[in-house]
Amino acid sequence: MASFKKFRAGPKFKLSGVDPAATPFSSGGDDAQREQLDTLAIELDRLQNVLHAEGRRKLLLVLQGLDTSGKDGTIRWVFSRTSPLGVKVTAFKAPTEEERARDFLWRCHAVVPRAGEITVWNRSHYEDVLVPVVEGWIDKDQTRQRYAQINDFERLLTQTGTVIVKCMLHISKQEQRVRLQERVDQPDKHWKFSLDDLAVRKKWDAYQAAYEKALTATSTDDAPWYVIPADSKHHRNLMIAGLLVKTLKDMKLRVPPADPALKGLVVE
Q1: Is the pLDDT of residue 2 over 90?
Q2: What would you report as the CA-atom Rg of the chain, rounded to the nearest whole angstrom?
Q3: 204 phi/psi in degrees, rounded to 5
Q4: 4-252: CATH homologous superfamily?
Q5: pTM of structure
Q6: Where are the domains of the chain?
């Protein structure tokens, strides 16, 4: 089994060093991989129950990636067996006027996970060190300041019981072209397509550079970044499911001690 450490960003991390088509966590054909994912999804549901029962700590999964990298699909399949009562998903879109009138972390802090809860962010506060950087809306000093503010924010969360897992879904330019073309060619997928996707695609290299700088600056011991090869949808889902299961197991969750008042109680 491959090691997650090999995909963890660090100070000398290079995005080009990760092959988007790699599948080190996959084995067997499609049927075998679906079975693997289902096994992991069932285990994730069990661990979520214990997290909820313990009622002290929280888990935050941050998903970032360019268009078609599979953020929605990841959520759909990785949490396919998890009770919706224990998982909360927030999708971050372009800031509203109300949000722009405040600091860029305001809208994020309002939706951090509660005790005993898994929260998934589909896009996140990292949009504020990607889009503004590529578009030239903030300069290098402002960008560095935001990196520091993000690290402080995430440190606050971890020090108050939140475990953070950040995944960058790394898709190749060729695979993105294929997926965008599918959305164009299939009328029932037109709702997924926007001409803005093509405008962003033209700035591919700039976004790759912005991601690399952001990952390097904000992958910390408190909140590490993992780069997920995402050309294979099966592999993407398996890797993230496996990472979440490992993370929850490493938390050594425990259900509350038995209530002595219930010993010998007979329900009639």
Answers
A1: no
A2: 20
A3: -50, -55
A4: P-loop containing nucleotide triphosphate hydrolases (3.40.50.300)
A5: 0.95
A6: 4-252
